[in-house]
Amino acid sequence: MASKGAAVALDFTRIYSKLNLGKETIASLQAFRKRHADAQRVTSQLASQPTTVDFARYRSVLKNTAIVDEAEKILKEFKPVTYDVGAHVNAIEAFEAKALENAKATEIKIDEELKDLQATLANIEEVRPFDELTVNDVGNAHPEITKAVETMVQKGKWTVPGYKEKFGDLTLM
Question: How far apart are alpha carbons 100 and 97 in whole angstroms?
């Protein structure tokens, strides 16, 4: 009974959001919870029904006691049918394996994202302010800029293409 109280006390929406479960996993869990609740409801309804039959009362009420005798004989001979639930167990095990596989894949993906975020955070913490950067720092960070400037100097180009169009011509002549 303690498990029943624990299941009621769980806040599943909080669990879904905290674990960052996928939509497919959440839908499967909600479907399972619904089937479980339906099965509990049917079980409680059936448990509340009386299970014994008073054949003596029916013999005293009915004129044809042969019918009561036949019903009593059928009830005594009745044996419930047993079902092979192996297929259902296999389906549950397959669902469990798939859920475990999805959880492991999610864990790996989250670990990779955490490593990337840790690296980004370390870069952010170590960055120098813009006003403290030097030309050499920019050149070391982006060697293609240094190469482009060296090529322009060798060719005698002292203007940057597109600069005048973007910022205008500041010459006074």
Answer: 5
